[in-house]
Amino acid sequence: MRRMPRLATAGLAVLTLSVAAPASGATPAGAGFQHRPDRFGQATLTGFASLPATTFVPASDPSGALLGTAAINGIVPPFADQPVQGFSGIARNSDGSFDVISDNGYGNKANSGDFVLRVQRVIPDYATGTVDVVGGVNLTDPAGLVPFALTRPDRVLTGSDFDVESIVKASDGSYWIGDEFGPFLLHFDRAGRLLAAPVPLADVHAPESAAILGVTPNLPSSKGFEGMASSADGRYLYPLLEGTVSGDPAGSLRIYQYDRRAGHYTDQRFTYRLESSANAIGDMISVDRDRFLVIERDNGQGATALFKKIFMVDVRDRDADGAVDKTVVADLLDIADPRHLGGTASTFRFPFQTIEDVILLDDRTLGVVNDNNFPFSSGRTPGQPDDNEFITIRLTRPLR
């Protein structure tokens, strides 16, 4: 079986910059920076593979009981097994496989109590256009480290406990995972067992955690750590909120720095400014000590998908506007496809509502994966549930 090219490690170097948090009167979303789109032209599709939407973990627990029994995009719940779906974070393994995390399940805390949180191990085969699921681990808390009540008495974690959206794999094989319900940082061993109590973010609470703590929420529901990068030495994590904290300028998102060695957040903080306050981010990875790649997208799918782009962001803030500088490196709705790898058209579109995975393959090649929100999203074909598509794209210029 043909394997994917070896990846550059996500998170290539330590960020050592200090950019102050924006003042309350900072520039609104979409203003004050230069994109310099001439730096990168139209990216080219170099690989396409897909995992069918109706892929399930064999001999696993039933799921989807709270979705009712009416068909959703032709799929009738509940399901006899756990679906392999909703990839919201990706990490590379040395054998050519990838670890991907399925997010909180069926869209919210109330309907996802029977969706088991899991790291899936997959291998895309671009020669055949298929994706093999070769294993995975459930996320669990056998030591009782979560300080609030869990859904299952056996302490297997579910989509009603956490909304996991971002992942960094450490050199020891353990996983750091960003959650949106807290927002929390979660540290699991290679077998998926929680190693420490969830790390909260001081003074920032989504409604889900605010209800547990009895405090007032200041972050929208499920708008916690959607993206997270790592420094090359693994010491620092850089989680990125998907939502705007109350009191911050509309469309501004906070990037934090967490010191794994010290076990706490540092005083470093950066600001990512959305092109539109209606947009959201999908993922973030490190390129070098000063730069990240960030997926920013609108909420449309299919014909209504109008904005799905990957930005290079530079935290040096050279225009001194209080936010990271942004340059478009790829428009995911306008990818050249001269070999017709993704269909009969010469232009390939990645028209999904949620695109939540990007990873470096080499200095000019990126891997990108959608979150198919099974069974709800139907961006590829109306009325049919989206597959999980794995694509590779080549940029017009090296990232250097």
From TrEMBL:
Residues 82-374 form the Phytase-like domain. Residues 1-23 form the signal peptide. It holds the Pfam family Phytase-like. InterPro entries: Phytase-like_dom. It comes from the Bacteria. Keywords: Signal. PANTHER family: BLR7070 PROTEIN, PHYTASE-LIKE DOMAIN-CONTAINING PROTEIN. This is Phytase-like domain-containing protein. It comes from Allocatelliglobosispora scoriae.
